[in-house]
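Side project, low priority. Logging it here so it doesn't get lost.
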Amino acid sequence: MTALVLVLAAPSYAASFPLPKFGFGRDRPAAAAARPKPGEWAQARSDIAADPEIVFGALPNGMRYAVRKQQIPPGQAALRLRFDVGSLMESDKQQGLAHFLEHMAFNGSKAVPEGEMIKILERLGLAFGADTNASTDFDETTYKLDLPRTDDETVDTSLMLLREAAGNLSLDAAAIDRERGVVLSEERARDTPPYRVYKSRLEFLLKDQRPPTRYPIGKVEVLQTAPAAEFTDFYNRYYRPERAVLVAVGDFDVAAMEAKIKARFGDWTPVGPAGADPDLGALKSRKTEAKLVVEPGVPLSMQMAWLRPDDTEIDTTAKRQRDLVEQLGFSVLNRRLQRLARGATPPFLGAGAFESDEYDAAEVTMVVVNAEPTRWREALTAVEQEQRRAVQHGVRQDELDREIDEYRASLKADAAGAATRTPAGLAGEIVGSLSDDEVVSSPAQDLALFEAAVKDLKADQVSAALKAAFKGDGPLLFMASPKAVAGGDGSLVAALQISRKMAVAQPTAPTQVAWPYENFGTPGVVAETREAADLDTAFLRFENGVRLTVKPTRFKDDEVLVRVNVGRGRIDLPKDRQNVAWASGAYIEGGLKQISAEDMEQVLASRVYGAEFGIGDDAFVLSGATRTDDLGVQLQVLTSYVSEPGWREQAFQRLKNSGKTIHDQYEATVSGVVSRDLAGLLHGGDERWVFPSRDEMADAKLESFKADVAPALAAGQIEVVIVGDTTVEKAIEAVARTFGALPPRPAAAPPPRAEIEVGFPSGVAQPVIRTHKGRGDQAVGYIAWRTNDFFANPQRARDTAVLGEVLELRLIEELREAQGATYSPNAAYSHSFVWPGWGYVSASVEVPPDKLPAFFADVKKIATDLRTKEISPDELARAKKPRLEQIEKARETNGYWLQELSGAQADPRRLDATRAMIPGTERVTAADVKRAAEAVLKDETMWMFEVKPAGA
C-alpha cells in the first residue's frame, strides 16, 4: 500500500465547522428510529463486541461516558464532550446559534467569569486552538481538551470547565453582543467559492429537505440580532445529559477517572422541556436532472449521484461485511478511474466513486470528477462509461485480489500499532462512532472481521454489491464551473444522455509486472559511527559518503519514518528567475525509469510504504512512512527515486493542466492572495519563493524542472534519517543494500554566500497592498518585524519566540475578546537555520476593510506597551507553559525527531538547539521578553501588508 500523490499548491479553505461529508464519511448504519435509548451504547443492540480496553457507562441522568487508559505518550490525556445537537435542531429564528453557542461556552458560566476560561487552561499548559477547541456540525457539537498532564489539578479543572459548558453557561446578553463580531468574522472567512459550491450542491441533491436550510454558520441577520432568550431556549432544550457523551482517554487510573466523572456530572439536571429531533423531510422521487453552477475561482468539478432513502439497519457483523464487500467494489472502480487519469491523454484530472449517508436525510452514491473547463464533455463521458462498465461487466478477480492485499496491509499496520495510538486519536475514534451509532471495535477486531469477510470472496459477489450501490433515483448531475457553459443545465443532460447510449466493452486486464529495484549492487560498508547517548541516536557514514542517522523509538508500534535529504534544495535553485518547484508533485507521479507509478502500486500492493518529494530550504527531500517489516522496501523505493526517476511527461502535463485555474482560485479569496504572495514578499522578491505567473506556468517544460533538480539528485550529498520502531542494526543493513550501495558522491562544499543571502522587506510608512476578487467585506492586515537567524543568538531566538506567544495573547485579548473584531488574530515567528540574518515576528488579522487602520494602530500600541513595560508573571506563564507543553508532546512523536535530526550531521549545532529548546525556553524571563520587544518591535522596522477587495 502506498501514498503516491499528485499535489499542486492551492488555497486552503479550512473551517471550524465541517464542509461536505460527501466522500469523507463512512456509511452510517443507523437512522434516528433505530438509535439506542438514552444511556444505552450501540453494542447493546449489536452482535459486535465493543473494544475491551474501553469502559463504557452511563449516569442515572442519561449522560454516557467512555473511559480508556492509554499510557503512551506518558502523562497525557484527551477529553471530549460531545452533544447530539447541531444546526439541524435550530428554529428559523435560531439559525447559527448552535455554532454561536459553542463560542459562548468559552465566555462565562456560573463558576468561571467571562474571559477567564482560556486563561485558566493556559495556566495549565493548554494552548488556545491547539489544545482547546470545539466544532459544530449539522448534527453534533463537540468540545475538545488535550491535557499535557494528568495530575489531579489539570484533570479536575478540565472536568469542571466541561461541566460548566454542559449546564451552567451564563449566556449574558452583553457577552453575546461582544462575541457577535467574532462569529461574523468567521462567517466572512468561511464564505469562499468552494463553500458556495458545496451549498449549491447540497441544495440540489437534498431538494426540499432540511439540511440545506440549516448550515452550521447560520444566517448573518440572526448572528447580528438574535436575543439572549433564543440562546437560552436552545441551550436548555438541547444541552441535556441524555444528549451528552463524555470521552476520556489517557494516562490515568480508569476507576479514578470514572469516579471523577460521576462526581462532577452526576448532579446535572436538565432545565425545561426537551427539544425534539428535527423532521429532515422526505426524499423526493426524481429522474435524471442536471444543475450547473457558475462560480469564478473554482476548478471545474462534476458529481453524478444516485439517491435512496436513509439506511436504517443497525451496526452488526453482517452489515459490516456487506459494507466491506461494497467498498472493495468501489476500490476497483476507483483504481480504473485513476488509471484513466494517468494515461497519455487523460480525459480528466481525477475522479472517484463512493457511498455516504447525508445526516440521515438520504443515502448517496456518487461519482466525482475534476476536469479542465474546456473538456467537461470528455470528462463526463469517460466517468459515466467507466461507471457503467463496472456495473454491467463487474470486476475481475485479479482486481479484487489486489484491493484485498492493500486493505489487509493497512489493517495489519493498524492492528500492529494499536497499542501506541495517541489519546486524541483514540478519543476521536470513539466520538466518531456516535453520529453513526457504531460499536467501537479495536483494530484487531476489525482485522479479524475483514479476514472473515474476504475468505473465499469471489469477484461476482463484489460485482453484485457494486451494481446494487448504483440503484436509486438518478443519476443527478451537478457541475460547478468557473465560466458559463452554453446551453446551461440542458447541455449537461444532453451530454449525459449521449454518453449513456454508447455501448461499453469489458475492461482489459493489466499487464503483470515485477518490482525491478531489489538489487543496487554490493552492499555498502560503514566507515564511521558516532552516538549521541542523550538523544538515543546513532550517526553513521558509509564509505560512499552517504550519511545515516537512526533513532529507534517506541512512540508508535510498527511505524518507521524515513527522510532522505539530497543536495542543497532551495539553495541550489536560481534566485533571479522563476523555477518549476511548484511542479514537485510530478516527480513521484512520474514513476521510475523501469516501472510506472501505477505499476509500482500494483506490484507492491501488499506492502506499506510512502513516496513523497519536496524542496526544502537546504535539501531536496524524499520521504515515506512504513511498517517495521517493510523498511527494506521503503528504502528500495526511495533509493530508486534518487537513482532512476522516471521523468514521465504525462505526469508533468497532468499537473500543469490541474494548475490552469490555480490563479483564479487564489485571487478569489483574501486568504488565497495571502498564500500566493506573502512568501515572495517576505523574502525580498527572491524568485525561489515567488509564485509563478499564469504565463510562466503555461510555458513551463519538464526539461526545465529536470534541469533544476536532476543534477543535485544525481551527485548531491545524501543523508538518510530513520526514526521509529526499528533497530540501528536493521536500519544499517537496509541502508547498506540501498543508498549505501550507490556510487560514491563527493562531499558537499559550503554554498557561496550569495546563494544563501535572502532579503527581507524594510519598514514602510504605508502598507503594501494586494487585492482579491472575493466578498467586499473581507480583508487581511499583516505586520512583520525582521529578527535574525537562529544561530546568530540562539537564546535571543528563544526569547523572541516567547515574545511571539505574548503578542498572540495580546492580540486575542484586545481584538477578539475586548473588541469582538475578528475570529482568529494570529502571531507567528520564525528564525531560519539556513538563511543568515533571516527571521521575523508577525501579527495578522481578518477584518472588514474599514477596520484595517485600527488593526495597525492597535498593534503599534501593543508593541509600544511590550517595549516599555515588563509583562506580568501570569502573562509570562500563560505564554511559556503552553509552548513548553507543546514541545514536550511533540517530542513523543516520530515526526518531531525526523525533523529535528534532519541535517544534524552536516550541522551539529542543530543537535545543541534541540537539546536546549526546553531549558532555553524555561529560562526566559519577563525582562528577556521586554529586551526582545525593544530590539524587534520597532515602529520604524514594521513592514505592513494589506489584502483588500478589488476596487476598495
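Brief comment: The CA atoms of residues 122 and 878 lie 5 Å apart.
Revisit when time allows.
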